[in-house]
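Feature request, filed as a ticket because there's no other form

It would be nice if the structure record came with a short human-readable summary line next to the tokens. Right now we just get the raw output. Example of a typical job, pasted below so the devs can see what we mean:
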Amino acid sequence: MSARPIDEPHRTSSPLELLFDLTFVVAVASVTAQLAHSIAGGHGLAGLVPFLQVFFAIWWAWMNFTWFASSYDTDDVAYRLLTMVQMAGVLTLAAGVPAATGHADYRIVTLGYVIMRIGLVAQWLRAGLEDRARRRTALRYAACISLVTLGWVLRFLIAETGAFPWFSGLPSFIILDVLELAVPLWAERTRATNWHPHHIAERYGLFTIILLGESVLAASRGVEGALETGEIRAPLVVIAGCGLVLLFALWWLYFLVEAGEGLSDRRHRSYLWGYGHYGIFAALAALGAGLEVAVEQSGHGVAASPSALGYAVAIPAGLYLVALWAVHALVTTEPVIHPAAVLGCVTLILSLPLATPRIGVAAVVAAIAAGCVLLVAVTIMTAAVGARAGARRQAPQPVSSGES
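Raw output as currently delivered:
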């Protein structure tokens, strides 16, 4: 198991990585469905914290596998079998999502997370044994991941006994999350791993598409729920259609930047770029839940108020745009999406739910989609104007007859 070169040509996602991602489709679908259930029941804020906690576990497990694979994807028998162990952990975690988000029962989620970490630690130990140049880095990863995983197990055991309630609550969760995020920063202080910038950019793009697909799936579930009444109403058509337009616009904005080149030139910003995607990914998952309930309420009543449904779509969309602009700015010389345009669009989106009692949920979703489409159009036109101006500056100037 030797480190793969950072400039390997034509490095793309392997079939095993794509298979691995399918397990996360199940996990994300489960956590999104539970958030949608909370929103529909009128207690979306109460369901938000469990959603963010479980989604962090999903996202962090995917992150760890992705960056390790970018450095050490040998694709031999041992690598494949240990990847299968991690896949089993993801599916176990997904099975425990309803209990975790609905009843604060994290037994199955914790078990799934531990299984994933066992597979990952084994991979790092193998890398430490076989890659002498980065042995210290690999062993640091293995030791730190094991210690933090032990912390999650102790948190669960203490919660079961009822002792030290503060340690089993949100504060301990935040502390352990910070420790998880600090592991790569500390482990790579000795020597950095050989991650491939274009491979990483592609992997993040693929996971973004997975989350957009989950939002489409969630909206489809909402359509099924709305059609239980046996009627196809105008609000249903408007919300479903505009939801698709909204997701397409968000996809368009994400892929305006080819992040591989930027990561190659700015490898020191990879941590901020990678960690910043938690906001993008979580916002997309939450947006799917909001669209699902917005579509569903067009067919029959839900406990949530119209304003709450408007915010369930507007807030994730706004957070996505802010996080996307911040992540793009880390790897580009000049911002592709102008900050003023992002600020204006986000301000519009977040103010629209205030009008929900008067214009309805369908009109609010349509206006949010229109705002994002306008942002895409402004960005494209601004880029075109800038390209023409750059071409004129680079064009040779004609020489006058007097100068000749």
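Something like this underneath would help us a lot:
The chain has 15 helices and no strands.
The mean pLDDT is 88.
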